[in-house]
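[job 0412] stage=fold_complex status=start
inputs:
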Amino acid sequence: MNQREVIIIGSGPAGLSAAGILLRAGAHVAMFERSPLIGGQLIKQTHKFFGSQKQYAKTRGYDIAKKLYRDIEAYQDHFELHLEATVVAIYPDRVISVYRQGVYQKYQAQAIIIATGASERLLSFPNNDLPGIYGAGAVQTLMNLYGVLPGKNAVMVGSGNIGLIVSYQMMQAGVNVKAVLEAAPNIGGYKVHASKLRRLGVPIMTQTTVKRAIGMTAIEAIETIRLDEKWQPIEDTETTIPIDTLCISVGLTPMHQLLSMAGAEMRYISELGGCVPHMSSAHETSIRNIFACGDVTGIEEASSAIVEGQFIGLIVSERLGYALEGYHLLKHECTTELGILRCGPFGEKIRLGQQKLKGGSSCSND
Amino acid sequence: MLKRLGYPSLEQVKSCFPQQDVLLKPKAIIECYEAIPCNPCETSCPVHAITIGQDINHRPQLDVDRCTGCGMCIHSCPGLAICVVSLKQDQAIFKIPYEFLPLPHVSDVWHGVNRAGEVIAPVKILEVRSTPIQDHTHIVTVAIDQQYLYDFITIRSPHE
Amino acid sequence: MKAFYVMILALKVVNHVRIHKHPILDFPEKKVIHFTFNGQPQIGHEGDTIASALHALGFKELSKSIHHKRARGFYCAIGNCGSCHMRVNHVSNIKTCITPLEEGMIVELEEGLGRIT
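[job 0412] stage=fold_complex status=done
writing structure:
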């Protein structure tokens, strides 16, 4: 068994920020990342981020990843990075099993921080499995990371921030986005993102959804249909749009699997995106010294994940006896920042979800 | 309208503009209609003409008397929701953010486009600014007939 | 002569799907990587994953559904969904969307559950 002081699972904004604080405090950190690249989903974000300066506002996502990593690089002798290393099992005594290039290895740590992020939801409709139908994030990865276009003509399903942002990024890369569909009566994401897209001539069709995909070995077209106020399809409103790319952006769900496997107490909170861990105010799960932060604790913007990561970094460093100078002030700052990020109208869902989580309703009756 | 279609009504647009005589000097026009947690416009303004405050969900308030029309806020706004406008004879001069290729060249004539994405009138390209601090958000200065003051929002290549 | 035309054709496809000019990002020319897909020689780029290289070549079908043998492409591109599982260097169920492409790789479509060796 390999012994480590702190293990962080996931190298996205939450994991990197937690590592930054822990290393600064003097702790030894081992980070495990499934992908060959560090930075989680930040590295494919080509847009400038919202928020305030403390969360790197007006910086493009991939540059935020670089900045967060730069904070870590200075502590190379305390920091161990495992790329292409998938954590496939976790046990309540803080033991993990890691699969890497055909080899399994076990590690035990004094504290584990789970920052595994989220995965994209699917949408059910006939032929939704045809090649050419992707999660919106997948298209972002393909274009912005690997420089490969998903196709020539695309439709986006879902007008949340990801749907709007990825549509804009497809247009930047040279894909013709024919429409954004939204089942709800109103656009879901920030209207500034919607306006950026509208002025490019991309229609945003509210109360419209995809009825079915058409194609044999790849998508060739979709049939859309209008919905009434009760979300019921309106007959004879079908329209066929020929496309080779359909992006699904209907929300994210926390990657809770490791937490569930560890036996942490979980709750299903729809406002937070799915199954999330019940946590103390210090973001400690029901298992002592297993912590969680970022989207795995509830779907939010990356700016919140950054601050949450810093917060957990502080908590864990103190737990291990490495309290940073100004610990209480820094902790207070994180709490204040998170409060501000969540206090506007777009924070309503997360506020409600967190209330429910604290409220103590049991897992299955949500 | 904004919620359903993604672009504001004419009334909403006009609410973001000062009196026309103020626009004899260039001023920032901030089209930030929603309370979202964001404040780079405030922190980037060198003359402190934009105020959001402690709660960054507040919408930005512009002090038009202080605003010099320098355009620092244009590329600082992650929502590309700010442009700088002035009036010169019968022309409206816009400085707009632009993140597409190809870039226009000075003295080209491009399509002027409204908020719904429709071509409305020709615009003349006066300047294309691309400094490192803008981080790939180019600032294009264009001239368009003044009657499109409340309609014009972006440009499109005539060769598309 | 025939091989020459096939090469030209392949290059054309690559040029079409690869992004060369982008308003935000730089995509410089990268080293070529040779691999085979279902026994046919193919060309990818350094930095590609197996899935991104195949996509750039126009191969969108990466697996088949287990019961109905329906064509499947990748869905998530970050290792979550498993619809890009392929046989790589004779090992089954490799997530090709997060596996970097390497020189000489043998990539094959797989039907059914895959063989554990």
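[job 0412] summary: The beta strands of chain B are 27-30, 50-51, 61-62, 82-88, 91-98, 109-114, 119-129, 138-145, 152-156.
[job 0412] exit 0
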